[in-house]
C-alpha cells in the first residue's frame, strides 16, 4: 500500500460558462519520502488536483468521482471534522504567492504561532518555542520572530510559509509553485531547502510547478498535465530524457537546458483548451504537429510505454 493513492480523481467547477471539468480522471501514487512533480501550463489542473486532495476547493468546486487514499483511508469520504484532523497534521499545503499570503499587519512569527495554536491546541508559550524551532529549520534567524512581513525578503516570506506548513510535522507537503516570483538565486535556495527538509523529515512531497527545471532538480517522479488530465507520467529521468507525448516534448523544449547543449527555448504554439467547451478527441490536437484524423475524434488512454512510464497519445509508439 502506498502512502497516497489517487485514483481516477475528477473535479468540476460550476462557472458562468457552465460546468468545467478541471481535473479529469487523475491517478497517481506516492510512497513515503518520495516526491512527485505535477507539471504543465497554467489552468491544466495542477492546483485543483492539490485542492481536491486536501479538500480545500472553493464553494463552486466539487469532486465528482474517484478516491484519495492516505495510509489506506479514503480522505474523500471523511466528514469535514475528521478531515480537519488530517489536514496540516498528515498532509499540508504551502500555497503559492508567499508575497501576498502573509497578513501585512501581523508579525510573521505570530502568524505561525496562531496556526500552531489552532491546529495543535498548544499554549502561546509552547507555540512560540515551536515557531523558533521551525524558523531555524527553514533557516530564518529566530530573532526575527517579531518582525513584520515588510521586513522580510521574498525568499524569507516563502521560508516562513514553508515553516507554517511544517508546523504539524505532515507526512506529505504540497508545494504550490513555491519558487514563483523569486529571483533565480533565491529559487535555488528554496529548492535546496525543500530537498533538505524532505530528506531530514522523511517527508513525501507533491510539487506543483509550470517549470520543468524546478521539477527535475527536486522530484523522483513527474506527471505532465494538460486540460485536466495526466498525459504522461513516469520517473523524472523517463520524462526528461524519453518524454513521449508531443506536449511533454514541447514543454521540455520551452525551457532553457541548463546542463546539455545550449539551444534557444521554443514557445508552444496555440493556447490551452477552454475546458468549458473541451475539444473532441485528444485535447492537444489543435497544437500538435503529429495530429491525424483519429486524434480529432478519439480520446487517447494513458498506456504503458516503459516500466512505470505511461503516455496518452495515439502515436506514442512511433514517437517514442
Ligand atoms: Fe498529438 Fe494525436 Fe498524440 Fe494527441 S494523440 S498528442 S494529437 S499525436
From TrEMBL:
<dbReference type="GO" id="GO:0016887">
    <property type="term" value="F:ATP hydrolysis activity"/>
</dbReference>
<keyword id="KW-0067">ATP-binding</keyword>
<dbReference type="GO" id="GO:0015833">
    <property type="term" value="P:peptide transport"/>
</dbReference>
<dbReference type="InterPro" id="IPR027417">
    <property type="entry name" value="P-loop_NTPase"/>
</dbReference>
<keyword id="KW-0472">Membrane</keyword>
<dbReference type="GO" id="GO:0005524">
    <property type="term" value="F:ATP binding"/>
</dbReference>
<dbReference type="InterPro" id="IPR003439">
    <property type="entry name" value="ABC_transporter-like_ATP-bd"/>
</dbReference>
<keyword id="KW-1278">Translocase</keyword>
<dbReference type="Pfam" id="PF08352">
    <property type="entry name" value="oligo_HPY"/>
</dbReference>
<dbReference type="GO" id="GO:0005886">
    <property type="term" value="C:plasma membrane"/>
</dbReference>
<dbReference type="InterPro" id="IPR003593">
    <property type="entry name" value="AAA+_ATPase"/>
</dbReference>
<dbReference type="InterPro" id="IPR013563">
    <property type="entry name" value="Oligopep_ABC_C"/>
</dbReference>
<feature type="domain" description="ABC transporter">
    <location>
        <begin position="4"/>
        <end position="252"/>
    </location>
</feature>
<keyword id="KW-0813">Transport</keyword>
<dbReference type="Pfam" id="PF00005">
    <property type="entry name" value="ABC_tran"/>
</dbReference>
<keyword id="KW-1003">Cell membrane</keyword>
<comment type="similarity">
    <text>Belongs to the ABC transporter superfamily.</text>
</comment>
<dbReference type="InterPro" id="IPR050388">
    <property type="entry name" value="ABC_Ni/Peptide_Import"/>
</dbReference>
<keyword id="KW-0547">Nucleotide-binding</keyword>
<protein>
    <submittedName>
        <fullName>ABC transporter ATP-binding protein</fullName>
    </submittedName>
</protein>
<keyword id="KW-0997">Cell inner membrane</keyword>
<dbReference type="InterPro" id="IPR017871">
    <property type="entry name" value="ABC_transporter-like_CS"/>
</dbReference>
Amino acid at each position: 500500500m502506498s502512502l497516497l493513492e489517487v485514483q481516477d480523481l475528477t473535479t468540476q467547477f460550476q462557472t458562468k460558462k457552465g460546468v468545467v471539468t478541471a481535473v479529469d480522471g487523475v491517478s497517481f501514487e506516492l510512497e513515503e519520502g518520495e516526491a512527485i512533480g505535477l507539471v504543465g501550463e497554467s489552468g491544466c489542473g495542477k492546483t485543483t488536483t492539490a485542492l481536491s486532495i486536501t479538500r480545500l476547493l472553493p464553494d463552486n468546486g466539487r469532486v465528482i468521482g474517484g478516491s484519495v487514499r492516505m495510509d489506506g483511508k479514503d480522505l474523500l469520504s471523511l466528514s469535514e471534522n475528521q478531515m480537519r484532523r488530517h489536514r496540516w497534521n498528515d498532509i499540508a499545503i504551502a500555497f503559492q504567492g508567499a508575497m501576498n499570503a502573509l497578513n501585512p499587519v501581523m508579525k510573521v512569527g505570530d502568524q505561525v504561532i496562531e496556526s500552531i495554536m489552532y491546529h495543535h491546541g498548544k499554549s502561546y508559550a509552547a507555540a512560540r518555542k515551536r515557531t523558533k524551532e521551525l524558523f531555524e529549520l527553514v533557516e530564518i534567524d529566530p530573532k526575527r520572530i517579531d518582525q513584520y512581513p515588510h521586513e522580510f525578503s521574498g525568499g524569507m516570506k516563502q521560508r516562513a510559509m514553508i515553516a507554517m506548513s511544517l508546523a504539524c510535522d505532515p507526512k506529505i507537503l504540497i508545494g504550490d509553485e513555491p519558487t514563483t516570483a523569486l529571483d533565480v538565486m533565491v529559487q535555488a535556495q528554496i529548492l535546496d531547502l525543500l530537498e533538505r527538509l524532505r530528506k531530514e523529515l522523511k517527508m513525501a512531497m507533491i510539487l506543483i510547478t509550470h517549470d520543468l527545471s524546478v521539477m527535475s532538480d527536486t522530484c523522483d517522479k513527474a506527471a505532465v498535465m494538460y486540460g485536466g488530465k495526466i498525459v504522461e507520467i513516469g520517473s523524472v529521468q523517463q520524462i526528461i530524457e524519453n518524454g513521449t507525448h508531443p506536449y511533454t516534448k514541447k514543454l521540455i523544449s520551452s525551457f532553457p537546458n541548463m546542463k546539455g547543449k545550449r539551444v534557444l527555448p521554443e514557445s508552444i504554439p496555440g493556447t490551452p483548451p477552454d475546458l468549458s467547451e473541451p475539444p473532441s478527441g485528444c485535447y492537444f490536437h489543435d497544437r500538435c504537429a503529429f495530429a491525424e484524423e483519429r486524434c480529432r475524434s478519439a480520446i487517447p488512454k494513458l498506456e504503458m510505454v516503459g516500466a512505470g512510464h505511461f503516455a496518452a497519445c495515439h502515436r506514442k509508439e512511433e514517437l517514442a
